[in-house]
Design brief:
Chain lengths: 256, 287
């Protein structure tokens, strides 16, 4: 089977400082990859290189496109890459305000991607927006309210709805539960797990939180100082870590 | 007037502006940056339009200025006299006689013809500004034709008001390519933008942008399939000339709250009255 995403030797420097170095892995359709590691280990750098927000200094990020099969998204033209990022890709930011338009109603936020790909029927767009608000457990009566009037957890769920409405095949998430209260986190995790399962989503999730990867990720990569120090099936890595740093990470010492 | 170069601006500046205009005509709807000059009037007074008019004007031109359809507002009068003084050109209030017409907020009712130039004063040239304040991003959106955001604006309108409430500055797509702000004309005027025989030039002074529509350009107002664009206007005939299809202003007629609707295009209305057309309020026709 062709991987949905094949990451090969991705390297990013900030000046002389390593962001991430020589990272490679394959992600197959329906798989969820978790990326864990301490602060500054390069998780966000890697994610942003894969999602096209940063240009890696070396390496390839090959995505199996619907129309042309595997294509290196690092070297494809910017219009093509931007088209991917509003159709087949989605990106969930840690801070909902980075991924939402705060001055636009919830319905408009969810509808934006639909309109961006050419939907021109108001009633249909609104219907799909209402449906998606329901799927992320936001009352349909809030459809015309701005996200500024939403709680943190609701904003995050709205961001997820806005991203998933066009049925993307690959979702990038950077600390999707970070900054939320523990009880709110649990509900969001539940919701994410349901969506991943129901939609057969492929996803790459960056997190500090081992509970998040335990629940969502099929496979796990552990990063330190910009390098991947260990990778494998989630349960294997968490229950029987091989690398000394992974052992430290899963031991309660480094649990946050 | 010997103190000034013809039409105030020096020839180098006019050349620079003409280059921007030609580029604008070559890429209809595309905003061309230009180095806007200080003009002896405040920005809100249409310095962009004035610079464009100055750059296209020749001594043989006959110049008309309209402000919300009227030739006699302070703004219109001062711009007209500015060019009388600095260019010595003939002026007129008659749409049909004018070769260059500078306008704020209206397109004349009388269809323009080939050879005429309509110059719009533009306050904010960027139609995407409302939802995306970053200029670097709006420029990219134009170059990549990413215009979904324009429909988000219309979506918000309908969700709030039940219909597209935008009645001025109504966004259009030019030749299937660039989304353009037609300046704050009423959407009633939008259909006249397309397929017009005259050249249309848009000048934004403070924002330093020029854009253009060459004659007979396709211009489509954005909308939704289930909320189609409508060139609406007050549903009355003109009280002075009886015109059924002109854009109307509501004017207060007395202290007792009397009101009437009259053509906003005063030249159009006066010409109709001179030709014998009457409305309900001008005494000649009580019907
Ligand atoms: N824009 C930048 N300029 C310079 N250095 C940067 C920049 N962004 C990140 N870095 C550095 O690159 C390294 C990796 O940072 P990155 O943000 O990818 O880590 P992270 O694993 O996502 O951390 P966190 O868990 O705190 O979000 C760090 O040493 C960081 O200081
Ligand atoms: Mg990070
Ligand atoms: Zn009239």
């Amino acid at each position: 089977m062709t991987p949905l995403l094949s990451v090969q030797g991705v390297t990013k420097f900030y000046g002389h400082h390593i962001g991430c170095k020589n990272v490679g892995f394959d992600l197959y359709p329906g798989e969820v990859m978790g990326i864990v590691g301490e602060s500054g280990s390069g998780k966000s750098t890697l994610l942003n290189c894969m999602a096209g927000h940063l240009t890696p200094d070396a390496g390839a990020v090959v995505f199996n496109t619907r129309s042309d099969g595997p294509r290196d998204t690092v070297t494809m033209s910017e219009p093509e890459r931007r088209m991917l990022s509003r159709t087949d890709w989605a990106f969930v930011h840690q801070h909902a305000r980075d991924g939402l338009r705060m001055g636009v109603s919830a319905g408009g936020n969810v509808g934006e991607r639909l309109m961006a790909v050419g939907d021109r029927h108001y009633g249909d767009i609104r219907g799909k927006a209402a449906d998606w608000l329901g799927r992320v457990e936001i009352d349909a009566g809030r459809i015309d309210d701005r996200p500024t009037t939403f709680s943190g957890g609701m904003q995050q769920r709205l961001q997820i709805a806005r991203n998933l409405v066009t049925g993307p095949r690959l979702v990038f998430m950077d600390e999707p539960t970070g900054g939320l209260d523990v009880s709110v986190q649990a509900r969001l995790l539940d919701l994410l797990r349901g969506l991943v399962r129901d939609m057969g989503l492929s996803a790459i999730i960056v997190t500090h939180d081992l509970a998040v990867v335990r629940l969502l990720a099929d496979r796990l990569m552990v990063m330190k100082d910009g390098h991947v120090v260990e990778a494998g099936l989630t349960d294997q890595v968490l229950d029987d870590p091989q690398h000394a740093y992974s052992q430290l990470l899963v031991s309660s010492v480094l649990q946050v | 007037m010997s103190d000034y170069n013809f039409a105030y601006l020096d020839e180098q500046t006019k050349r620079m502006i003409r280059r921007a205009i030609l580029k604008g005509l070559a890429i209809p709807g595309y905003q061309v940056p230009f180095a806007s000059r200080e003009m002896p009037m405040p920005y809100g007074w249409g310095t962009g339009g004035v610079q464009v008019s100055a750059a296209v004007m020749t001594p043989d031109d006959r110049f008309k200025v309209i402000d919300q359809g009227a030739d006699d507002t302070t703004n219109a009068v001062s711009i007209r006299s500015f060019f009388e003084r600095t260019a010595g050109v003939a002026t007129t209030t008659k749409t049909s006689e004018a070769s260059v017409i500078q306008t704020r907020h209206r397109i004349p009712e009388e269809p323009l013809r080939e050879g005429q130039i309509l110059v719009y004063q533009v306050p904010i040239p960027e139609p995407l500004r409302f939802l995306e304040p970053r200029e670097s991003e709006t420029r990219k959106m134009h170059s990549l034709e990413e215009y979904g955001l324009m429909h988000v604006k219309l979506y918000e309108d309908i969700s709030r008001h039940g219909h597209i409430a935008t009645s001025y500055d109504y966004p259009v797509k030019v030749e299937g390519r660039y989304v353009m702000d037609p300046s704050p004309i009423p959407k009633f005027d939008n259909p006249k933008l397309g397929d017009m025989a005259a050249i249309q030039l848009f000048g934004a002074g403070r924002e330093q942008r020029i854009y253009a529509l060459p004659p007979y350009t396709q211009v489509v107002s954005l909308d939704f399939e289930d909320h189609p664009f409508e060139a609406s206007k007050p549903d009355h005939p003109c009280a002075l000339c009886g015109a059924e299809n002109s854009y109307l202003d509501e004017v207060i007629t007395d202290d007792a709250g009397g009101r009437m609707f009259v053509c906003s295009d005063t030249d159009f209305c006066e010409a109709r009255q001179a030709a014998g057309h009457t409305g309900t309020m001008n005494g000649k026709d009580a019907a």
